[in-house]
């Protein structure tokens, strides 16, 4: 199974060959740093939402309850689903989910194994930037051995009322219309509150990166080189695999990278944009950064 640090996997019940999931779109307060909370929108009490894990060929029923003050939807980003299940009600026959109601998204998983996302696709410029997104992983039952498999979703927020250059405890509204973000998160936390990615010496490590928000994030690893093995949920043929140490994760993209943990230590793994490695421009380091730590 894939590990999503600081987030839960969405549980399901299987009834007559169908996997039944439940998502609750709702107001959520998320602690991004000790004592610093954001008032955002998420799923099942978390930002990002819980990670959904399925297999190719699965039949799924994902019931989405709307506990928000306005209509919403869920789009299954990168999945080949029927038109009325795609979750873009302003364009498609997929319906809006009005407040206090629910909708059952029903489809079979036709895509091959890979990394995908789910997110709102109604009043997208507002709702998506309020935090309504999560990961959807199609697992490979025949995959070659990977010792550890991590998923990281990248997000950014402007906390309203936080004076620049300080980090003050409190509970803050976020401005979804902002282009001037001051906090940058991995799985809903800023460094040093992020959870390290534990590795063992000579282990094969996979990291899945996803971005559904606005800014692009060039993610860089220290002390290692990695292979870029998948893009947008699609495996890259051996002849096309690139060896890199930085991969730009633009809005709407997912990337899978793999490396061999062969250089013991505590290594940064972070967005390389300097602004994104800070908590509201404070010192020393923060933001979209975690560590690879050998155990």
Describe the protein:
This protein is mainly beta and 295 residues long. Helices cover 1% and strands 43% of the residues. It has one helix and 22 strands. Strands 10, 12, 14, 16, 17, 18 and 20 form a seven-stranded mixed sheet that branches. Strands 1, 2, 3, 5, 7 and 11 form a six-stranded mixed sheet that branches. Strand 16 (226-231) and strand 17 (234-235) form a beta hairpin. The longest helix is centred in the middle third of the chain and has 4 residues, at 124-127. The radius of gyration is 19 Å and the shape is globular. Keywords: Copper, Metal-binding, Oxidoreductase. Residues 33-141, 181-281 form the Plastocyanin-like domain. This is Multicopper oxidase.
Please write out the topology.
Layout: E1 13-15, E2 18-33, E3 36-43, E4 52-54, E5 59-66, E6 75-77, E7 102-108, E8 114-119, H1 124-127, E9 133-138, E10 148-157, E11 170-173, E12 183-186, E13 197-199, E14 204-211, E15 217-221, E16 226-231, E17 234-235, E18 242-244, E19 246-249, E20 254-260, E21 266-271, E22 289-294
Parallel strand pairs: 2-5, 3-11, 4-9, 10-14, 13-22
Antiparallel strand pairs: 1-2, 2-3, 5-7, 6-8, 8-9, 10-12, 14-20, 15-19, 15-21, 16-17, 16-18, 16-20, 21-22
Pfam family, one: Cu-oxidase_3
Protein name: Multicopper oxidase
Domain Plastocyanin-like: 33-141, 181-281
